[in-house]
Design goal:
With about 850 residues, this protein is α+β, with helices and mostly antiparallel strands. Helix content is about 55%, strand content about 15%. The protein has 5 domains: about 30-110, no CATH class; about 120-200, Alpha-Beta Plaits; about 200-360, Gyrase A, domain 2, CATH 3.30.1360.200; about 375-580 and about 680-860, no CATH class; about 590-670, ACT domain (Alpha-Beta Plaits, 2-Layer Sandwich). It has 27 helices and 19 strands. A hairpin with a 3-residue loop joins β3 (about 165-170) and β4. The two termini are about 20 Å apart.
């Protein structure tokens, strides 16, 4: 084995091992079962504690085993680290903090590495109501503005918690609903508190000579209030209290804070660093200078060093709680401050998050509930089976058509999926059902790189080369195309991450991971396997099956006709969108009504969908939820989201269809859109920026005319996909945003392959006319174009036929995009490039050809 091959082998093993370690275990282990098997010291003693905790849960004294163990530890001062000596926490001196860190570590270790979203696993949800006093006397438009601002702040706070694909929307005109997928109150009991805090931060003077514990009653200083400060001994971890008189009127407020972030202390704990605005830095400098000047006054400068009044303090108060009161020795002009306290890492991060996104009004918890999976078991099962079928069709096609090379491609695809899941698990991203579908469709798209290489190898074999030389030449000649296609798509993904929010940013991250994994698997793992197979003569007769003969079709001859026809379809779609504008958006975009029902017998959600369809009741979204804050805790109810003014009709239809369920209405409310206006704006901005980025990159890497052709064809594909989908009666929901973004990636990938071949043929045929070059390039990439489209279409078709409703629509949009992308790379992108140069290659040659030829020659000469 050569050094180059050995290094590829070692790198591949390391990457795959890392990915597998990150993926497993995939499923959650019940916390009680997991923690019972983990003590490595005094197991019998821990079993007794565990039984006490389980009894507390059974007697409804504690909501979960995690909370019960935490409460017992505090009450009985039990050090849980003695039962788990392999988990090193000796540096955490405070017993309560040590127990909290240990229990949270064990809880997280019991959970599967792949986090599932609301549609697959459910999560926790709560309704936060704005305090009535904050809305008193305000006009309706002011209330709407205040609610919208609160929703925006909650959205930023949720993003700070690292929760992927949450749902945040208005409920009525004074409440906010928050759904957090895959997050339980057991795993993060403080998440709710950190979301609803108003975060009123103030800085106060501290009385220098009087203290609440030593001041007689009636002699308290006027204008001061007593507050308690907790401190921790860094050596023993013991917590002690100091009572101070803090001035009622603050010296400055939190509006002068520009940024807050969590940082480690020298003792291994955490505190919050504050950075002021320019105005805040000036005011903070004035306050600290006044305290420092007072230190040097005759009244205090002569005091003994051990007198606490010798150096003044500045109190930092958050939501009427004294967090720290640092001593001020000198003026601090830089605008920096520290909130110290008994913070865990999570508490410090959440507090910094709250300070960066302060609420003006207090939010009160109105309702909290566990949300069941939004897709029924049978719908999830059908969609997963459809995903497996789609993957199976792609695998079968590759093996039948490419034989031994196809088997290598399949192995590469499996490693690709493992690496993608491994990276997602390491990032703790949430996997939803559309995400699974996107993963399957990514498999179909990832086949493209293998097909490019295999078709290049086929061309080299036809020239009479042996398998070894054909393999090397195939990889070398396909490299530039694979590189350009993936880097262009990666550029799109980076822009989505940069400018997008919520699901847009999440899609960009997933797309980036997929591109990186595809490049690695194709250029490293696939090449490694093929090199070894050829070296040890495991692969001799390859590519004996071919459906395509060399074609010489004049595509440009029909360019104008095809171009005009396709844009007429775009126009028809635009007319369809305009005519149906009020009906094309789902509840995700425009909101609707929600009706809460009690029942005596559970109705399968698929049956609810059928009844709604039979009675033409429009879109319905049913889900079962378990109340956690009502008098009847743990009571399950059915909530159904409907289009505006449809909730009553939906209830009547269900009550008539399922009389045995004894459905009763227990509440109705209006709900806002789950796709916020900011997400829609960010999506449009990100798409526009991505198109500009594509134009710039392709113009730099190829030539400006190529960039124009790429952008026109991409816009064409997006518009025709949206238009045809609407004409077929489709309605846009949140996953459709991801489908449109995927079309952009697929379209540019397809176009770049054709353009790369045009560029190559221009170099190889310096005297041939531009029209002939374009026709030659399109004909020679036709087999690859059709094969890639077929494999990707097969994966989408399986999802369309057998997937659940939301996956069905997702696949339909992408299928339209596949057809549009295949068509546009031949009849839109290439003709636009040709017309841009007015059918003449002279200017094209003198501007960029030499530069491109040198770059490609250099990459091929490796």
């Amino acid at each position: 084995m050569s050094g180059n091959t050995l290094s590829k082998f070692i790198i591949s093993i390391i990457v795959l091992s890392w990915a597998v370690i990150n993926i497993f275990p995939m499923n959650d282990i019940p916390f009680a079962e997991y923690i019972k098997s983990k003590p490595t010291a005094k197991p019998l003693e821990f079993d007794d504690i565990l039984r006490k905790a389980e009894a507390r849960v059974q007697n409804h004294k504690s909501p979960s085993l995690f909370v019960a163990l935490s409460e017992i530890g505090k009450e009985e001062q039990i050090d849980y680290s003695v039962f788990f000596p392999k988990i090193h926490l000796a540096d955490v001196k405070n017993l309560d903090k040590r127990n909290e860190i240990l229990l949270r570590h064990l809880l997280q270790s019991s959970q599967g590495k792949i986090k599932l979203g609301l549609d697959l696993k459910g999560g926790v949800a709560f309704t936060l109501k704005i305090d009535d006093s904050a809305l008193e006397g305000k006009e309706d438009f002011q209330k709407t503005h205040q609610l919208a601002k609160a929703i925006s702040i909650i959205d930023q706070r949720v993003n700070g918690l690292g929760v992927a694909e949450p749902i945040i929307r208005a409920r009525g005109n004074d409440a906010i609903e928050v759904q957090l997928p895959g997050l339980s109150t057991q795993e993060n009991p403080d998440a709710l508190n950190s979301l609803k805090k108003p975060a009123k931060l103030t800085f106060h003077s501290v009385h220098r000579t009087l203290y609440p514990d030593s001041t007689p009653k009636g002699e308290e200083p006027i204008g001061y209030i007593p507050m308690t400060l907790e401190n921790q001994d860094p050596k023993t971890g013991k917590v002690y209290e100091t009572r101070l008189f803090v001035k009622k009127i603050p010296e400055m407020g939190g509006s002068m804070i520009k940024n807050a972030y969590a940082d480690t202390t020298q003792y291994g704990g955490f505190d919050i660093k504050l950075i002021m605005t320019d105005a805040g830095a000036r005011r903070f400098g004035e306050i600290t200078k006044a305290i420092a000047d007072e230190n040097h006054s005759p009244a205090f400068a002569s005091l003994p060093e051990n007198n606490p009044a010798k150096i003044g303090r500045l109190a930092i108060v958050l939501d009427n709680q004294l967090y720290s009161a640092p001593r001020v020795n000198e003026a601090i002009p830089g605008g920096h401050a520290v909130i110290s306290g008994q913070f865990s890492q999570r508490e410090a991060l959440e507090l910094a998050n709250v300070l960066n996104n302060p609420l003006e009004v207090e939010l009160k918890l109105e309702e909290m509930y566990e949300v069941g999976p939004t897709l029924a078991d049978d719908a999830r099962s059908a969609s997963i089976k459809a995903s497996l079928l789609g993957s199976g069709l792609v695998i079968l096609f590759m093996i039948l058509y490419y034989q031994s090379l196809g088997l290598v491609a399949v192995i590469t695809l499996f490693t690709n999926i493992i690496i993608i899941l491994g990276v997602q698990a390491s990032l703790k991203s949430t996997l939803t059902l559309p995400g699974i579908a996107a993963l399957v469709l990514t498999v179909g798209m990832a086949v493209d790189s293998n097909i490019l290489i295999f078709e290049r190898i086929r061309e080299e074999l036809k020239l009479g080369k042996n398998i070894h030389n054909a393999l090397s030449a195939g990889f070398d000649k396909a490299f530039a195309t694979i590189f350009d296609a993936n880097i262009t798509t990666l550029l799109t993904a980076v822009i989505l991450i940069w400018l997008g929010t919520g699901p847009i940013k999440g899609f960009g991250v997933t797309l980036s991971i997929g591109i990186g994994a595809t490049l690695f698997c194709t250029l490293v793992i696939s090449r490694l396997i093929l090199d070894l197979a050829v070296k040890y003569k495991l692969m001799r007769n390859v590519l004996t099956v071919s459906f395509f003969k060399e074609s010489h079709f004049d595509f440009l001859k029909y360019g104008k006709t095809a171009f005009i026809t396709s844009w007429l379809v775009v126009l028809a779609g635009a007319i369809g969108v305009a005519m149906n504008y009020n009906h094309i958006y789902s509840i995700d975009f425009v909101g609707g009504d929600e009706i809460a029902l009690s029942f005596s017998e559970k109705i399968p959600t698929q049956d609810i969908y059928k009844v709604a369809s039979q009675h033409n009741l429009g879109e319905v979204v049913p889900s079962y939820q378990t109340l956690l804050t009502a008098k009847e805790t743990n009571k399950e109810i059915l909530k159904i989201q409907t289009e505006h003014s449809r909730s009553e009709a939906v209830f009547e239809a269900l009550a008539h269809a399922f009389p045995h369920a004894n459905l009763k209405v227990i509440g109705t409310s209006s709900i806002g859109s789950s796709v916020s206006s900011s997400i829609k704006t960010d999506a449009l901005l990100a798409i526009a920026a991505a198109l500009v980025g594509i134009l710039i990159y392709v113009a730099f890497r190829f030539e400006f005319g190529y960039g124009i052709g790429a952008v026109v064809s991409t816009v064409h594909d997006v518009l025709i996909s949206i238009g045809v989908y609407v004409l077929l009666g489709g309605q846009f929901s949140a996953p459709m945003v991801a489908a449109i973004l995927m079309i952009i990636g697929y379209s540019i990938n397809d176009t770049i392959v054709v353009f790369d071949r045009i560029r190559e043929e221009l170099v190889l045929n310096p005297t041939t006319k531009l029209a002939d070059i374009i026709n030659m390039a399109v004909n020679r990439t036709l087999s690859r174009t059709i094969l890639t489209s077929v494999t990707t279409f097969l994966a989408a078709l399986a999802l369309f036929i057998f997937g659940a409703s939301i996956i069905h629509d997702f696949a339909l949009v992408f299928m339209i995009g596949i057809v549009a992308g295949t068509f546009s790379s031949i009849f839109v992108a290439a003709p636009v490039f040709y017309w841009w140069h007015k059918g003449d290659r002279k200017n094209l040659q003198t501007r960029q050809l030499t530069k491109i030829y040198e770059w490609d020659a250099g990459s091929s000469a490796k």
